[in-house]
Structures are given as C-alpha cells and as structure tokens.
Amino acid sequence: MVLLHVMLEVLAERRGNFCVAHLNHGIRAASRSEYAGVRQLCKGEGVRFFGSEVDIPILHKTVYRGKSLEDAARIERRRFLKRAAEAWGANFIVTAHQRDDLLETFMMRLMRGSGLSGYDCLKAIEPPFLRPLLPFWKADLIRYAGNCRIAYYEDHTNQDNQYLRNRIRNELIPFLSSRFGKNLPHVLVRDQEQLSSASQMMEELLEPFVRGAVFSEKAVCFSWNALKERSDAFLSELFVRSCKRWRGHTYGIESVKMTQAIGRLRLAGSFALPFRHDLWFFREYDRCGFTSEKPERIDYEDRFRRPPAEGSWENPDYPLHFRTHGGRRITLTAERGLKPEAIDYLEGERWTALLDEDKMRFPLILRAPRPGDRFRPLGMREDKKITRFCTDQKISIKDRSELLLLINQKSDIIWCIGIRIADTVKITRDTRRVLRVKCQFEPEKGIEGRERSIPQFFD
Q1: Residue 444: partners with Cβ closer than 8 Å, 6 or more residues away
Q2: CA angle at residue 85 from 79 to 86, to 5 degrees?
Q3: CB of 411 within 8 A of CB of 423?
Q4: pLDDT one-digit tens code per residue, 144-174
Q5: Structural domains for the chain
Q6: d(Cα 195, Cα 201) in Å, to the nearest integer?
Q7: Quick one: CA dihedral 348, 350, 352, 354, positive or negative?
Q8: Does the pTM exceed 0.70?
Q9: Engineering a disulfide at 47: which of 42, 51, 300, 301 sits with its beta carbon 3.0 to 4.6 angstroms away?
C-alpha cells in the first residue's frame, strides 16, 4: 500500500502510465478480502488493476513437489507479474521490497552457503524489476504509513517460525541485535553491499568464459580441457553464475556440493552428482556442467546379463533385417564382387564398410558387444578391447548402448558399425574383390561417429 501511495503521489498526473498487479496466493483465509480491498482502492483512484488467484497449496503438492511453499509462491508470483507487464505493455515491474527483505535474503543465503554470486541479491535496479523502497527499513515505512494514514495489511503467516525466513526475522536478527548492538543490521547490509560490488566485478571477469558455454533448454555445458588449469574458486563462481543465467536462479546450489563437484572433476572418469531432484552436475569425457535431467548411465553388466540379441546373415545376396533390444530396426545390405580399381575409397560414409571379400566367411553375425570382445581396429597392429577402443575414441556412454558389431564366421569382429572396420579385412593391393556393406536404420539419434574420414584402404 505504501508503494501505491508513493506512485500516486509522484505520478499524480500520469496515473494512466502504470497499473497495479496483485496475485492472491490462496494460502491465507484473509487473502481474498485483501485482494478485493486492493482492487477497490485501484478503482477509486482510477488505476488499472490486474488480478489473479491461484491455489499455491495445491500447486505445491502437484506441480512444485520437492520445492518449498515459499518457492512455489515466488515462482507463480513472478510469472504472474511478467504476464501482467506484457499485457499492459510495461517496461518495468516495480515491487515493494525493503531493507529488511534484503537483510533476510542475505542471511538465508549466507546460512545456505550460496557463494559470492548468491550474496548479490535484491538489487534496486534489476531489469525488468525496480525496487525503489529498498533503501528503507520496514520500520521507516510503517512510520510513513502512520503519518500519511495509509491502511495496510499484515500477513499473519510472517509470525509462523516454521519457515526459515520467519525464524531469521523473528528470532535470529533480534537476538544478534540484542547481543551485539542495534546497529548490527546496518552493518550486515553494508557487508552485503560490498559483497555485491565484488560479485559484479567477478561477473565482468567471468563473462568471456560464460559466453563460451553451450546453453540449451536442458543443460549448460563447458569444455573441461579449457578449464582444468583454473583454480577451484574460479570454477565455482563460473559454474554457479552460468547456472543462474541458464535457470534464472541458483536454488539448490550449495557451496559444499559445489566443492564436491569440482573435487570430482579433478579426478578421471565420467560422473553425475545430484544437487537436487531437478539439477545434476556431470562430466562426460571433455564435457561438464549442469543438467536438469539425470544423465543416462548404462549399466553394461546388466546389459550383458540379458539374453543376447543377434542376427545371422546367411546370404549376402539378401538383406539382413535385425531388431535391437530397444526395438530399433536395422537393415544390412551388400554388393559383391566389386573391382578395387572401380571404387573411390575417399568417398567413404560412416554407415558403409568396404571389405576384402575373399577374407569374409558367411554367415556373418550382427550383435551388441559382450564382455571381453576384442578386435584389431584399422591401422593398428594389435588387438584392443571394444570397451577400451570406445574410451579412446570418446564414444559417450549413451552412444555405446547403440553400438553393434559385425562378426565373421571365425568369431572375428570385422566392423564396429559406424565407427571403424577391422584391420584384418582391409583392402590391400592384393585384394581382388571388394564387398560393400551398408547399414540402414530407422531415423533416430544414433552413435556419434568418430574417424569418419579414415579411408578404408591401406598399403
């Protein structure tokens, strides 16, 4: 009410230039009468009113499961204010946050270990939000309301100490003020402002690295090789700020978990570390960052325990139709008796293999990898385990789940499909006939192929 009074006083002749937006959260019984009171006041003052009602307790149990009631109310409130601003065509959203709100938010984040970027909160100008009452304490605004005879509403839930913010407001701050001086709240806010300045300076220094991140709807990713020489403090600030830019907030990011994630980054191997139900920190080879979905991890031992799916290709004159465990349909076709001199070996394609036909023994077997599988990749002199080969080629965990092998009659792996043929069936100067094998499958995201440009011909 104080903010509306100030707006009416300052913009007395321009009341058509702003509107009032009020959301009834449905948490308190009195909120409906307060909603009606604000609407009636706006009508009397000739100010456009935008109002809406939601049932936050119901949304908290359904849409926002896992979040606090306060978080659910905050998210819905911000969405409503932005919708109202868009409908009105407003450039700014002016809120009534005051200095007590700033101190309480700072103390909450301090207790949760939000880091430097988390302490940079509730700025007076943070487009599209403006907070003109931020320099004033609640006591100052109450005195102003009394002097100007402004009626205002008291939220009785502010006395409910089951919420952290209320415990800070009603218990912690009064205790600190009584033991360490009444001026302590002013000192704490001054410290917050200094930390906010340091955070803004850090923001400018980190901006080139943030711009180098890859942002998508479900993740924000970095190249670990480009960052691994940086300090833990640098990485912590970079990851937190990038996540904030991606999600719009830093809920769930605590300093202890961030320290654990960075420590794990320093070790070898892929991993996924949960921060909350909808936020994971991960590393997969060179990629690292935050994702909103639990990274898919393939349990190969479980996969190998399942009945092996394999297809037998008896006659290359007819196609082989094969369906994987996941239901994916794959077709292999072959062209026999091709002359080596008639083939352009540099026009290779990842789903086509050029093989020495005289070294082939049908029937061929098409199947998924099994524990202990080995083959000699093209260009190598020694055999290598399939798992090791995939690691060296940086084939992702998810993509390995789609991997298929073509096996010779002698149980020799002749083609790691889509990646590389075996050296044992390569085309040489002594090759008389070439077998061209093509793999076709239903449209779907498949293996991220490597070594696509390697010609399948060696002297």
Answers
A1: 328
A2: 90
A3: no
A4: 999 999 988 888 888 889 889 999 999 999 9
A5: 2-181 (3.40.50.620), 212-291 (3.30.465.60), 303-441 (3.50.40.10)
A6: 10
A7: positive
A8: no
A9: 42
Bridge-based pairing of strands 384-385 and 219-223 is unpaired
Find the mean pLDDT for residues 51-67. Answer: 89
DSSP string, 380-413: -SS-EEHHHHHHHTT--HHHHTT--EEE-TTS-E
Question: Would the pLDDT of 385 be above 80?
Answer: yes
Query: Cα separations (Å) of 253 from 214, 232, 236, 280?
Result: 19, 15, 10, 10
Handedness of CA 283, 286, 292, 297 (dihedral sign): negative
> Which element (helix H / strand E) includes 281?
strand 279-284
Return left, alpha or beta for 3; rule: phi > 0 is left, psi -120 to 50 is alpha, else beta.
Answer: alpha
Cα gap 299→281, rounded to integer Å:
19
H or E, element range at 22: strand 19-24
Six token digits for residue 292:
């909103």
Q: What are the C-alpha distances in Å from 91 to residues 7, 60, 81, 222, 440? A: 16, 30, 12, 34, 53
Q: Dig out the tokens for 19 from the structure.
A: 């509107």
Paired strand residues for 330: 322, 441
Across the chain, what does the average pLDDT equal? 86
Nearest to 438 by CA among 315, 333, 368, 311: 333
Residues 6+ apart with CB under 8 A from 273: 257, 260, 261, 264, 280, 281, 282
Q: What is the pLDDT of residues 192-204, one digit of tens each?
A: 999 999 989 999 9
